[in-house]
Every structure is written in C-alpha cells, then in structure tokens.
Amino acid sequence: MASSYLPQLRDDSLLKDRAFVDGEWVTDRSGKTFVVTDPVTDETIGTCPDFDSQDTEKAIEAAAVAFKHFRKTTARHRSELLRKWHQLVLENAEDLANLITWENGKPLADARGEVKYASDFILWFSEEAPRTYGSTIPASVGGRRVLTIKEPVGVCGLITPWNFPAAMITRKAAPAIAAGCTVVVKAPGETPLTSLALAELAKRAGIPSGVFNVITTLEHTPDVGKMLCAHPKVQKISFTGSTAVGKLLMKQSADSLKKLSMELGGNSPFIVFDDADLDAAVEGALASKFRSSGQTCVCTNRIYVQSPVYQSFAERFIERVKQYQVGPGFDPTTTHGPLIHSRAVEKVESHVRDAEVKGARIALGGSPLTENVKSGNFYQLTVLLDATKDMRISNEETFGPVAALFQFETEQEVINLANDSQVGLAGYFFSRDIARCWRVAEAMEVGMVGINTGK
C-alpha cells in the first residue's frame, strides 16, 4: 500500500489487509477481496477480505465460544483491559489519524480530534465497568427480598458507519466489553483500515481471542447484515447508519427478538431567533452544518432564521464560509475534505439543482469542485438562500456541505416547520430568552436539543 502524500506510519504493522476473527488475521473462505480507495484521488489504497454470510457465521461462533468464559471475568479485569486499549490508542494516535484521513478524506486535524474522541469512549466505559450496580426493591410480601443484578447480554453485532471510522466502533465496542459481552464488528466497506488497526491495538491490550472480532465486506454487505440479525447466537444489534437500512435490520431481527440500538438518519433543524447573539449563532451553525463536510447524522439540514435578522445572519454566515478551504485532508491549509464517493456528490448536486429550480438563490458555491482536485468527490461549500419546505433539501438528509437558509416569522411557525419531519435525531436553536429556551426545547420533537450551541 502506498501513497505519494501519506505520511509514513510510525508502526507499519497497524496497516492490515485481513479481517480479525478469534484473535487471528484471516481471509475469507473464497479468497475474494474488495478495493479500498482514497476519496481524494480515487486511487487504490489496498484490499480487504470480502466476507460472506458463512465467513460471518464463523466469527459469530468464535464470539459465542469466547462469551462463555469472558462473561465470568470480573468487572475490574475488564476495566483494566479497556484501560490498556485506551492507552495504546493514545500512543498510536498519529498513525490512526493518518489512516482515517487516508481512507475517509477528512482533514488531518479533524482525524486527530476523532482519535481523541474515540479513545475517550474507551476510557469512559473502562470506568463504568466496575459500576454496573443492581438495585434492591421493597417487597410486597413480608419476609421476601427482591433484588436485581445486571448480566451481559451475549454476542453483540455492531454495524458501524464510515464517517467516524474510529469513534463509532469504540462507542459501541467499549460498553459491550465493559459489560462482559463479546462483539462482531462489521467494518464499513469504505473505511475498514481504521477498524482493523483498532483490532490490532485491542489484541496488544490483551483483550482475549474471540471477544473483539472485526469482519470486512463490500459486495456481501446485505447478506452479512442479515446473518448478524438472524443468527440465534447474536443477542443484540447496534447500528449507526441510514433510516432505510435501520428499518431493514429491525425487520430481520424481529424473528429472534434481538435487542436493538439504532442511531439513524437525521434532518436536523437549526433555529435562529431574533433575540439571539448572531455572531454566536453563526459560529454554531457553521459547526453544526459543515462538520466533516456535512457528512454526519446530527448535522443541521435546515437553518431557520427569523425574518428581522435573516439578512444580517445570512451576510455574516456567508462571509465566514468564504474563509474555509476545500482540499486534500493532508494539506495543512484544508479545512474541509472530499465527500466519501461520487454517489454522495451526485446526491448533493441533485438537492442543489432541485432547490434552484424551486426558487432558492445560490449565494455561494453550488456545484462540484473541479479545479485543483484529483477526483470527482469534491463539492463546493454551498449556501442557499430563500429555501422553502417543498424542496428536497427540506425533506431529505443531504449529507453534504450545503447550508439552506429558511426564513420564518413566529415561534409557533418555526416549531411546526422544525417538527415537520419523519426523523428527529437532533435539533438546535439560539435565543437569549430563558423562557423561550425552555418552551422551544420541550416543543422540539427530537432526541437531542442543543441550546445556544451547534455541537
């Protein structure tokens, strides 16, 4: 594996081209592989095994065998294993960041931040492991005692996305291991190298064979997902990804009544009221909209600005976006990298063109970036004005660097607009009126509310 601009890894042994099952680096049974590409250039980085359902079943069986022993370990022992893993992630942070930037495309500074974010999940759950307390409950019958204890659920199938290839794995695997569960991670086909590097560090930390397994696939992704959902020895599925795929996995898990944790697509509203600190609101909107070039599920998709401050907000917002630089992640002047692949660019372009046809004004950007780039995966940071609710960008998750500004008049109007969505992952608003903050936060039909913050 080579690249003309990838900094040399300090530890080349972190760069893996095999899956990790039962403590061993393995290929799939057919010997087939898939290509991992650099989104900056579309050049091949390397290959990984293309696991099918039978290969996946072997990983599940290994995790099931390991669970019989691992579930009996003490919480303190599991805490110590996670601490060692956390420390190794920190010691190899620069190599992990380089891998993230290489296969995902995000700027190196952002990748470094993700590695810290990923390590913090391991640290947090290492501290939670010894605190899996039960409870005592007053009995309704004299002479009886009622108490609860917590038990590990079993083998967990973890299906992770490409936009945070390190953090989304540690966020799922660390709590499972802390509880005494074993896991089979289905690495994202676009960014498997980071997943495999984490597996190598887990092995070095002493996490036992079969406890942490990482499988890779591209062509067989639907079959692998179905195997994880249908296999009777998998007790829980955790998935981060699109709503459509989440619905499918839920259906496939129904017959075996698996426990499910789903973090699905978003269409997050971001509201700026006329009493807001506009400079703070601009910074919050920038952070919420353009993080990872707009490729996160909690990115704002709809920016609603109250009419008295609409023009002022728009002008300040546009001037700040102009200061950003789109380019290769390893270029120190780059603030925003490419989209993950050409299909993502096509979706963003379709949303922009639809908005334009329906009356939106393109204030900045508005087309794929073609100058001084080596692939078709770049899109200009874009600002659309005068967006309306009939546009696709109002009703579908864009997952790209397009900020659409909508104008509104009243508080009730914008609450209705914000809640007019089939999904409700996150929402944000800016106001200096404490009574309004409580009213709006409680009225928004979303799982997470950011008040005077875009993060």
From TrEMBL:
Its EC number is 1.2.1.24. Keywords: Oxidoreductase. The keyword NADP does not apply. Pfam families: Aldedh. The keyword Oxidoreductase applies. Belongs to the aldehyde dehydrogenase family. PANTHER family: SUCCINATE-SEMIALDEHYDE DEHYDROGENASE, MITOCHONDRIAL (PTHR43353:SF5). This is Succinate-semialdehyde dehydrogenase, mitochondrial. It comes from Exophiala sideris.
